[in-house]
Amino acid sequence: MSALAVAVGVAALWGWHFGYLRIDQWMEGTQPIVYNAALSLAVLGAALLAANLDHRPAATALAILGGLPAFLTLFEYASGVSLGIDELLMRYSLPAGFPGRIAPNAATCLLLLSAAVVCIERPKQTRARTLGVPLLVSMALGLSAIAVTGYLTGFSTFGWGRFVPMALPASVGLVLLSLAALSIGWRDTDSAAGGIPSWLYLTATVAAMVMTVSLWQELASEQNVRIERAVAGQLQIVRASLLRDIEFRIAASERLARRWERDGASDRRQWEFDTGLLLRDVRGFEAIAWTDPAFRVRWVEPRNGTEALLNADLSPDPSRRIALETARNSRRTIVTPPVRLLAGGDGINAYVPVYRGPAFQGVIVVGFRFRDLFQDSIDPTLAGYAVGIYDGDREIYLRSPKDERLATAWEKQAPLPIQNVQWTLKLWPARSALAVVESGVSKVMLAEGLLLSVLLGAAVYLAQAARAKACLAERARQDFEKEVAERRRAEQELDQFFTLVPDMLCVAGFDGYFKRINAAWEGALGLPLDCLLAEPFTNFVHPDDLAATKGVVQDQRNGVGVFSFENRYRAKDGSYHWLRWNAVPAPERELIFAAARDVTAEKFVDQALRSLAENLEQRVRERTGELERANRALHESEELFRRMFDEAPLGMALVGLDHRLVHVNKALCALLDFDPSELRGRTWEDITFPDDLQAEEPLLRQMTGGQIPGYRLTKRYLRKNGGIVWGALTATILLDERGNPITVLEMVENVTERRRHDEQIAALNRELQARVGELLAVNQELESFNYSVSHDLRAPLRHIDGFSKILLEEHGTEIPSAARRYLDLICAGAQRMGRMVDELLELSRTSRTELARQPTMLKSLVDDAMEELRPELGDRHIEWRVGDLPFVDCDPTLTRQVFANLLSNAVKFSRPRNPAVIEVGKTERQGQSVLFVRDNGVGFSAKYADKLFGVFQRLHRREDFEGTGVGLATVQRIVHKHGGSIWAEAKLDHGATFYFTLDAAEARQFGSRKEPEPVAGEA
User: Fold this and answer.
1) Burial of 398 (0-12, 13-18, 19+ CB in 10 A)
2) Which has fewest Cβ within 10 Å: 62, 106, 212, 643?
3) How far apart are CA 275 and CA 288, in angstroms?
4) Are 257 and 354 in contact (CB under 8 A)?
5) 996 and 981 in contact (C-beta within 8 Å)?
6) Residues 558-596: pLDDT tens digits?
7) Do the beta carbons of residue 356 and residue 400 sit within 8 Å?
8) What is the pTM of this model?
């Protein structure tokens, strides 16, 4: 059946894919099986096939996969949300408006069968399998079987209301799946009723009940449809009658207005005649009034009860004035919402404007009373229905008292447009009308069907019970025969057991003789069985055990019961063997059934064990002595620890987990000026300065919580006299063997003097920082002074140089040669002084310039510096060695000046060398990058290196090498501004090497190298 269900699903899928709709319908004009239902049907059939073959994981996975579309479809029905699963695999639409959606009853059956397959894969004899499977399958079987019945009988039991009906292929496939699931449950049953499952009556009852409820639901649904159609039909009849009659009355009023427009409206007698005819021939008019163009009432009919309206002005009422003006301006009839009529009572007014040519003549005001208007329009023979007319939420007419329950269940409504007014017409049946339409067949069918379902289940149960009793009787007969055969076999086995068992078995009589013994006796004692049976058994008992043995036999004769004892029996070689007996008396037969076992070897083992026990007791006594000695040593160790604790130079205390001091030593008492008895029992908070509690509390909490093993803290303690002492605290948590905290050990060192020294050092540091600030201020002032003096010196120097040159050029022939040489010296000195001033200004600008760092390739800076020096080289032979230089984060302008000054010095001081070798590169010092500029020039003595970077400091004569002594000072300023350091290594007449770094990290790395102190004026 599972294979047939799979075939039905696969055939339906094939029909959808290739457009053969007849395969999906089976009957022309019926609902085709939808794509998702066919797919789930095939998958669930495959799941049942896997379950039948005991492939549990595959069956469970396929069951969940097959039930998923059904579960999602039911979710769509319940929530009203479309998940898109209906068109996921196949896109088509059904007439019911649900595109490709599985019918709700089919989805329910698929979900029930999916859950049943999952329960089948549960272990046997579990409640989910023995009760869940038949219950789920029976409900699915009932729903699908009633659908098949509907297709066969033409009774529409295959649909649920307005939803998509279950297709015939789907219902047949679901019946096949249900029967297949029941067959698997039948196969796996473990019932005592001859293979008939105990749940069969439950399955029959539930399936019949489901079919009954489905049939009753269909009958009730058809009855509800008939009632809804009847109510809707009456609603349309009443609505058409109301619209017709109201429009007729409004049209009659408009015809009156048109006649007056044609004939004039100045004759009162004509007015009374026309209105009288209208009031007499047409029911529903309450009163008809005529107003002049100023909206003042001139005439009104009938006169009785309306005398107060004559000459009344209608314009003060805002709602009436708006309606009158709207009718006048639009030249059409205006109907008002429910109002209080001019003549009294509730109703509506119709305002009909009257024009004669372009001239406005006034308004005819027609009043309609609600009850007279609606009672004439609604058919008096419309018995059994309640009618209500509403203006929004306001009830303006109700034909009969309202039954809220019936109105909620069956009420129908329709709009009722009257000119410019929109009302709502509501209609619902009364109980008398429902009694005519309703039928008790569905309820009778439901009651009888449920009763028949219960009776069917009872009949199946009784049949099962009868068959079970017959099976039990047959089984009892078979069991009896089997028991007889087993007894015979047991006797044979008992004889064989008695003969072959290794224990010494016997049957003895109260007369003192063995009646029966097995072969084990001969093997144990070596005596023939005939000899043992011929003599009283007491002849073989050891003389010392004879009295006890006879006493036991006498007890057995008296019916004492089971006994166990030991005695010795003589063997063939004359030795005695220890036997351990277990015996059961049978006084009515004067027999004793006994079993003996040779325990001679055990006796020897017992003797050996007793000897070992004595030795063990001796060793225990010796071990006890050792433990006593160890306890004395431990006591002495504890006493030593106590003395060390009390005499320790540091303050020590044992603090409980409740923060109370348990034990303190002398040093802590002396530190705090307390007696030991005064400190014990106090908490650590009592002796701690209040301002230091907050810092220690989290540390103590972490230590007692096991997060840290201890902590160190310097805090203030309170002495007995209220004074304060500083202590360095070391706290450690002490744990037991299971790792649980038991107490805290605190050690306190008096650091009051150390704290006083620390405070003095801090004060000195603050004073030093203040003096450093003053020194920085002085340096800034010197820098400003240096810049001002250098700037102010330039003009006098230019004057000296310029006037000296003018004097030589204009009066050179008149000046003696000695004076001319002096003037040359003056010009040279002024020019040298100018260069020095320029370099001082450059040094000052370098100190003031802010760094503009950016990633820079040092190789390009070196190339630029070499290009600047090229005009000064002339025909000199210089070997340049420029290595791989890194990218660094620096100010490129200032860094280029560093390389320019260092290379210029290298060129200058290597002038005596041919060839001169100048090298620029990078090296590693202690893991850091260091840049260098090296030459093979004249070098300098290392003992003068501390003067190298000072302003105007020179290590060579001016006559040998030109220069002002400011270049290296400028280089040092630039390197220091970058946070680096610079130093030089040289040897006289063997060249010099200048090393420098451009960041603070590298400067710290080489901070131990001796560098010259900055001169005054340097930052």
Assistant:
1) middle
2) 643
3) 7
4) yes
5) yes
6) 777 666 788 899 888 888 888 888 888 888 888 888 888
7) no
8) 0.35
